Amino acid sequence: MDDLIAELAGVLGEANVLVSEQDQAPFITDWLGKYRGAARAVVRPGSTADVAAVMRICARHKAPVVPQGGNTSMSGGATPDASGQAIILSLTRLNSIRNIDAVGNTITVDAGVVLAKVQQAAGAAGRFFPLSLGAEGSCTIGGNLAANAGGVAVLRYGTMRELTLGLEVVLADGRVWDGLTALRKDNTGYALRDLFIGSEGTLGVITGAVLKLFARPHARASAFVAVRDAAAALALLATVRDRCGDRLTAFEFMTGECLALILRHIGDARLPLAATPPAAVLIELSDQDDEPELRERLEAALAEGIEAGLVLDAAIAQDGTQAKAFWRIREGVSEALVREGKAAKHDVSMPVSAMAEFVAVADAAVRRVAPGVRPIVFGHLGDGNLHYNLLPAEGQDPAAFAAIAPELTRIVHDEIGRRRGSISAEHGIGQLRVDEMPLRKAPLELELMHQLKHLLDPAGLLNPGKLMPAATKN
Amino acid sequence: MDDLIAELAGVLGEANVLVSEQDQAPFITDWLGKYRGAARAVVRPGSTADVAAVMRICARHKAPVVPQGGNTSMSGGATPDASGQAIILSLTRLNSIRNIDAVGNTITVDAGVVLAKVQQAAGAAGRFFPLSLGAEGSCTIGGNLAANAGGVAVLRYGTMRELTLGLEVVLADGRVWDGLTALRKDNTGYALRDLFIGSEGTLGVITGAVLKLFARPHARASAFVAVRDAAAALALLATVRDRCGDRLTAFEFMTGECLALILRHIGDARLPLAATPPAAVLIELSDQDDEPELRERLEAALAEGIEAGLVLDAAIAQDGTQAKAFWRIREGVSEALVREGKAAKHDVSMPVSAMAEFVAVADAAVRRVAPGVRPIVFGHLGDGNLHYNLLPAEGQDPAAFAAIAPELTRIVHDEIGRRRGSISAEHGIGQLRVDEMPLRKAPLELELMHQLKHLLDPAGLLNPGKLMPAATKN
Fold this sequence. Notes:
2 copies of one chain form a homodimer.
Chain A: H1 3-12, E1 17-18, H2 21-28, E2 41-43, H3 48-61, E3 65-68, E4 87-90, E5 97-101, E6 106-110, H4 115-124, E7 127-128, H5 141-146, H6 154-157, E8 164-170, E9 176-179, H7 192-196, E10 205-212, E11 214-215, E12 219-227, H8 230-244, E13 248-255, H9 256-265, E14 279-287, H10 291-307, E15 311-316, H11 320-340, E16 347-349, H12 355-369, E17 374-380, E18 385-391, H13 398-418, H14 437-440, H15 443-456
Parallel strand pairs in A: 2-4, 3-4
Antiparallel strand pairs in A: 1-2, 5-6, 6-10, 7-11, 8-9, 8-10, 12-14, 12-15, 13-14, 13-17, 16-18, 17-18
Helix pairs in contact in A: 1-3, 8-10, 8-12, 9-11, 12-13
GO biological process, one term (chains A, B): respiratory electron transport chain
GO molecular function, one term (chains A, B): FAD binding
InterPro entries (chains A, B): FAD-bd_oxidored_4_C, FAD-bd_PCMH, FAD-bd_PCMH-like_sf, FAD-bd_PCMH_sub1, FAD-bd_PCMH_sub2, FAD-linked_Oxase-like_C, FAD-oxidored/transferase_4, Oxid_FAD_bind_N
């Protein structure tokens, strides 16, 4: 056993320092099976003090540290490189809900608490925590914070950044910044909190957070709506927003190709419409109570959409079961994609008003390079966030498609750049997009990022190879 | 004319470099008349490029720069010191609305645009910009961003930080960071935007911003409600929130002493209640439409409050005129305070659940030191933000009160510290609270702030003496 491992075991106990291949297996590969790394050890601290001790030891030994929560990153953000030098710092033993304040509408949690547990604890206190995403049963709050998670309720409640009041962070040198305040307003200095949120574990290790809670909505209304295209969907979004205001909780867009794919692969998905439309949106409203009023309001908005020629057909859920069936379609997209083959995936955002035009231009541009390529486009239209995926032409050799996939990504991201969009709306940069950063960010912005990184992690030990491209300057 | 002035005049024209005492007068004193400084020149750039040129010149001459918008800071944040070395950089000529995107719900503006002009432009486009505060007719967006302004709609829409998507910032060395994106979701790096927001002009000069717009609420319902005390008000807040959700737009608290003061000094203020109550709240709901439904909902919440013994008496506005009269009371507080005498003012925040207990404890604590002292307490209860003001005892010599005021402030802020609150919820640190920073911030947080300041403004030229206390380390 080397010195580093011995010191870590001295603090955490040998049971919490995993060195065997078998013990490490779940930690060194990302859940998508896309990245495979190696670790010198996986450590499992049980407290903030433990994390601080680990960081002090690793700093002394100059050992790189890869923080990991539920290991559900979409971009390889929590998987070490192949060098075998890294210590994986698993936060999942930090899993206490420290406090719920139902009057102040806040919850204070350890970073390793699973998202679903926070949702449940809020519900048990008669409150609501709105962050909701596919991995909610296994992702952790710390990971949600590191990645500034989004999901299906951003339109109304914002991303993880907007849902957070305070943070506790262990710095690269093991010092603990206690920013665990529960304040809605505090103008006494620089926004350290926001520096750590979304930094993908490259500036510090988040160990605790104070999150906002909300009044619990007791009424929901959902509609599955056929539209002509993204432009019609955008116009309908404006109508629904004007009529429904903050009640609008989700506005999810899917193209007809997307729907066809779902129907092909997801056995229990049923379209609530007479025919597969050119495109569709799933709309959800929520409110404190009064479901009939909510449904009427949604009907009125859709009637206005029909009148304006925006809505081709629509189904309104009559109960929770029907609403669930609508969501089953939306949630089946990722699964259907996997079953169809290996897609070139893009998680892009842009000004909401640019989306319809972007889809048309990007579709044409990728088809010029790859005739027959199948764009499978869906996403959070109200947030300007599209999951723009490309499947090979029917019958195309997967290897041939894989060979042109980087070129297709360049085309898609060039179009995003022209609209001042983002090449990662919610999935983060991680390893997946790190090499693109110098192409997509202005040199001044990269320089400022490098300086911030150097300030907080001068030895470059925190999650190396993620988010921050290797410095090219100096 | 010295070299610096000549260079500035060469870029901006002599008409935009003010050196005479008379021309400088409106810029060197804060609007409250509390701080009076001196300037080497007041410069009035007309574009971002102008600002960049000014910063390059000032950096070369090592001249301190004090950015200034509408000069409405509550904490002397835009007033230079008395040395006469500073260049005041007035942003008011940068006053264009660059773009309104009614589909994407964004507005892009120059930093010098007056807040009311943004509100009006949003309204003209059928949209709504929610930031609203007393100085809205003269404060600028750049100042709102530098101070992370709050106001009366934070409860629903958040502070300026939450209302902002993108920024354009001129750095201390004159380079321009173009972060003027209109993205709702963008996880591609560190939150530079949030570093500049709330930094009071000490890290860079904000020259432009992309702000969020919202659906325009067409219905309002307002109530003026008598309650026993802050504890009852807090319980009522929970009830109203549960019943009304996001419709709750304002929940403003005033003590009975506060009301009595208003009635004494504000001739046109009329209480809509039979008698002056021990305390009161002004509640406002807003929604897309359907004013009768909104009023009914408010009535139901208040009925529940009466049932629970929380509400002593209540008046619901029957029309806009009555609602305006309710707000006249709330808005009269500051004016009434000024007329009554010189108060020791505190703009504090804390966890919402701690407020009632704080008021009781702080009242008792200040009375021990200053018998007869009159706490005049009001504020944004839903945000945990109180304006906790202390007037001298009736008939007390103002000089004697001024002598103990710092001790009273220490007592109030100590109580805030015990509840992990903030000594500046929305007014900023500026000059007013800068000396308290070392007492109220953890050493590690101050150290990180100093490092960030040094990174972005190594020569310490940006708004010296504001927000950042002089470094005591190294």
